[in-house]
Amino acid sequence: GAERTAPGAAVAANMGSGSPKPRQKFCGMFCPVEGAAENKTLDLDSLSPARGTPRNDGRVIDSTAPPPGTLCHPSPVLLQSDRLLIKGGKIVNDDQSFYADIYMEDGLIKQIGENLIVPGGVKTIDAHGRMVMPGGIDVHTRFQMPDRGMTAADDFYQGTRAALAGGTTMIIDHVVPEPGSSLVAAFEQWRSWADSKSCCDYSLHVDITDWHKGMQEEMEMLVKDHGVNSFLVYLAYKDVFQLSDSQIYEVFSVIRDLGAIAQVHAENGDIVAEEQRRILGLGITGPEGHVLSRPEEVEAEAVNRSITVANQTNCPLYITKVMSKSAADVIALARKKGSVVYGEPISASLGTDGSHYWSKNWAKAAAYITSPPLSPDPTTPDYLTSLLSCGDLQVTGSAHCTFNTAQRAVGKDDFTLIPEGTNGTEERMSLVWDKCVVTGKMDENQFVAVTSTNAAKIFNLYPRKGRIAVGSDADLILWDPDITKIISAKSHNLNVEYNIFEGIEVRGAPLVVISQGKIVLEDGNLHTTEGSGRYLSRKPFPDYVYKRIKARSRLAELRGVPRGLYDGPVCEVSVTPKAVTPASSAKTSPAKQPVQPVRNLHQSGFSLSGAQIDDNVPRRNTQRIVAPPGGRANITSLG
Amino acid sequence: MSYQGKKNIPKITSDRLLIKGGRIVNDDQSFYADIYMEDGLIKQIGDNLIVPGGVKIIEANGKMVIPGGIDIHTHFQMPYRGTTTVDDFSQGTKAALAGGTTMIVDHVIPDPGSSLIEAFDRWREWADEKACCDYSLHVDITHWNDSVKQEVESLLKEKGVNSFQVYMAYKDLYQMSNSELYEIFTFLGEMGGIVQVHAENGEIIAEEQARMLQMGITGPEGHVLSRPEELEAEAVFRAITIASQTNCPLYVTKVMSKSAADIISQARKKGNVVFGEPITASLGTDGTHYWSKNWAKAASFVTSPPLSPDPTTPDYLNTLLASGDLTLTGSAHCAFSVAQKAIGKDDFTQIPEGVNGVEERMSLIWDKAVVTGKMDENTFVAVTSTNAAKLLNLYPRKGRIAVGSDSDLVIWDSDAIRTVTAKTHHSAAEYNVFEGMELRGAPLVVICQGKIVLEDGKLQATAGSGRFIPCSPFPDFAYKRIKARKQLAVLRAVPRGMYDGPVSDFSPMSRGGTPSASARTSPTKQTPPVRNLHQSGFSLAGNPAQRGAPSTEETPIRPAGRRIVVPPGGRSNITSLS
């Protein structure tokens, strides 16, 4: 067995002492170990007895809120004997904290309370008053992502392992279909990768990288048959993934009708392309060119535009990767105006900044490349954590998409070719704790909300995920707010040489991680099982999002003004441009034209029939009239 | 002072005028003095002037004398699908003079695909023949390619045009893509032009129009329903972003809504060089009239961006105008007869767009902003005349009462009360969007080119007397800041050694193919790498990199990861020179 025996055992040994421990500054469980990185691949056969029973089918589990007790897992083989009792913990949900014991069986939370009556032979974990929280949900990962023949360095195994090590028990990955190819085929492809390798439960967002005939049907199929309720569109990557405003309008309309969430990668791709050309023209080819060609204004502009389109189509919007103050401000402002919009800052934007793009070490600078880029403004992380704390931003992801230095070096002479993505799935929980809770910006309940509960609500996994309650999944973490560790590539669970949070000391880390009712992290040791992660299908129309949307669509019936027929003179017109507009847009839209006139925007509040005082005031007869003479008096104002 | 346009004036000869006892109001101060004018110029200002005999004397009796208004946005005699707007240059400029405006700036709208210069010449011809007051021209860029670029350059350098409008609306007709906007902004930023934008998201409008028609909404209310103010604000935001990227001064025409105005004031607070132009209609009325049961009346309000149905909009815009967040005012006067509007009687998208406002502009702003105490008379002069002159680079020839300036003056009667009505207005349109509005403040005497054109309520204008006033590039009002930023914003690369470590194999397709791909779609070639953005504020030399973990800077961490795509052995070659 090559599992790491970290010195964290010392911490665990102290656990029973019941007295407040001094901070294990020196020998925390994440203390870097010489050469630890050499042994990152587990010999699983020797580790997990369940390894021999592969489960391929029947793992799609419906995510409807499980009525307590009636839930039946299709594959009890694996989970059958997992009985766990956490004693003496402080349960932290997003709404309250309270002391109670938790009994889990078959991957579910069965009982919560004091003096529980549990079967014998149950493994008991003594929490000693520490916090027990719902496991984290990383809403944005890109494990194993293909990019021009390469594949992201962390695959679903390595990635979910890192996630678990950091206290995240569920990830939602992005399916990125090649433009022009089938969404469902790409989805199946990702399913097969993840099913064989994932160590924790997962779900999938599907990216709309193209918009053509048949897409709408595929989206419908994904929502109805495959449990996908979120689709991402790109406003960037011109000529590759980028969609036009009209296309986005149509995609959003489809998404709203299907009851899904529209996600956007918000950057103005047109401007980015121009700026890239200009920066290369200036002879700037290094990683600093990446951030210079993608200034934060361009991010804010795209956020603003997507919010506008979402408001028009009455579609809920989710901004992935909020990287800059300006973009966050636009979101905050839109929320104040009532837009249904959510913002997702990521580990990188919460934890570090873009000054590193100017590092003289090319490989280091390249490791920070992601889009939108990290802001060079060093006050950004603090600002974003504040907005996250006050609720203007709601969820956190990692956008974990790692490439090793050799892969990054594809762009050594041209920053536009550097594969994009940063790490963060492992560091996310600790970073947020350190930056927000330790600093007093949020309490532990809000922490649970932004790292887990809100994500579960938005993506319709609540209360199965994101809450400690009877009937919920047994994805829990025992959180130690006092552990301090220094993030380093020497000790992280990733396949890459650089960690963008290198050297950052964070306080707060998971002590025990329970995923699917099994202990996967204890005493600093990871016990993960490749392929044990289940795909969670998500139902459309999440209440958290769609209650408001539905109310608005009921409200917004538009009516025309009843008027008599105009029978006055009409000018002769040469049939030329202008106002050919509506017809031409039909031409470009693959979506079936008949959008039902149901839903609509908020602005119908105005009283629609407004007679004016002077409606019937006679108009003077002017001399110059283009219309045939005599027609003047016929202008009707009926009604 | 010598002016090219002068040869166009056949007879401004012996006009000698003395205004006695007036209070001169400029944008910076007011003071009592007499004004003596000769040959269309102001020759002397002061007390007890020594003037030749036989001079006509106007007794101002302490009333205000202000620089004549400049209406920076008109569409007179605009061709529209085989017809022409009802107010031609003669009718339009007469209306302007009647309202106290002594100069107009019209928009040249070339058909997409046709020559800009030819269109410009055509407009010149029309206006020279008919205009009763001085005029200048903006040229709209309705398509973009290399030859347009050359034409723009020659218009700027030789023809006296310093402002060009681009459209973000009118999909498949005038609308420009973001890349085209970027190129145009870049180009004009270098050449010293002002970019004007018609700011509305044309793509979404097209979608919304289709939706409205499909719902059976065909009347004028469909116009405003399909063009909600958010779409205006969105486009303003986008235009500002692009202008800021390209370090180009931006001018937003027709600010019609609170949201759009807010975006402009926000941007100005962030330091962007952006100017907003509310128009008479948005300052004076609102979009509730689109729901009028009288089709012809509702249709007469159709303009784009539409009037906001929010009735608090005019008050809001007047406040921003007074506070300086919005800079100057136009009328966007573009009047159609009811018969012309009726082209769209069964489909609101076919209704020709435009409202009146050239005649009412000055009185309306006086009434809404000065009478209410939002602004003083100096600010009034600034927003109706001086700021426009500065932006057009005509200051101080226009927009100021000073020795040497053109004698375009108005004696303003702040107590006159008039009711606006189509029965008495000078426009040829049957409807007036301000119908029934009682306005306080009106011109008593209007002097244009040193001649009295309005006195005792009588208008005596001469068609063809208006001169074309050429505008030169790089107006200080906008470009001083732009130039300073340009000098500041030099980007530098980080000096690094060559990377000589392992490189993964990759198929050079998708993703990152971006820059080359964009070259394909851009009609004009590679922009020279000169100009630049403001955001160079961050020190580019890379001192920030010193923060963080300096120790790791020199010694990159390279754990020998197990899964590695590169050839084995290559690992340790990753260099970090210097």
TrEMBL record, chain A:
It comes from the Eukaryota. GO terms for biological process: cell differentiation; nervous system development. NCBIfam families: D-hydantoinase (TIGR02033). One of its GO terms (molecular function) is hydrolase activity, acting on carbon-nitrogen (but not peptide) bonds, in cyclic amides. The keyword Cytoplasm applies. GO terms for cellular component: cytosol; plasma membrane bounded cell projection. Keywords: Cytoplasm, Developmental protein, Differentiation, Neurogenesis, Phosphoprotein. Its main location: cytoplasm. InterPro entries: Amidohydro-rel, Hydantoinase/dihydroPyrase, Metal-dep_hydrolase_composite, Metal_Hydrolase, Metallo-dep_Hydrolases_sf. Residues 1-21, 42-74, 608-639 are annotated as: Disordered. The gene is DPYSL2. Belongs to the metallo-dependent hydrolases superfamily. Hydantoinase/dihydropyrimidinase family. This is Dihydropyrimidinase-related protein 2. CDD domains: D-HYD. It comes from Scleropages formosus. PANTHER family: DIHYDROPYRIMIDINASE-RELATED PROTEIN 2 (PTHR11647:SF56), HYDRANTOINASE/DIHYDROPYRIMIDINASE FAMILY MEMBER (PTHR11647). The keyword Acyltransferase does not apply. It is found in: Cytoplasm. Residues 131-520 form the Amidohydrolase-related domain.
UniProtKB/TrEMBL annotation, chain B:
Residues 64-453 form the Amidohydrolase-related domain. Residues 513-538 have a biased composition (Polar residues). GO terms for cellular component: cytosol; growth cone. This is Dihydropyrimidinase like 3. It is found in: Cell projection, Growth cone; Cytoplasm. It comes from Scleropages formosus. Residues 501-578 are annotated as: Disordered. Necessary for signaling by class 3 semaphorins and subsequent remodeling of the cytoskeleton. Plays a role in axon guidance, neuronal growth cone collapse and cell migration. One of its GO terms (biological process) is actin crosslink formation. CDD domains: D-HYD. Pfam families: Amidohydro_1. GO terms for molecular function: hydrolase activity, acting on carbon-nitrogen (but not peptide) bonds, in cyclic amides. Belongs to the metallo-dependent hydrolases superfamily. Hydantoinase/dihydropyrimidinase family. Keywords: Cell projection, Cytoplasm.
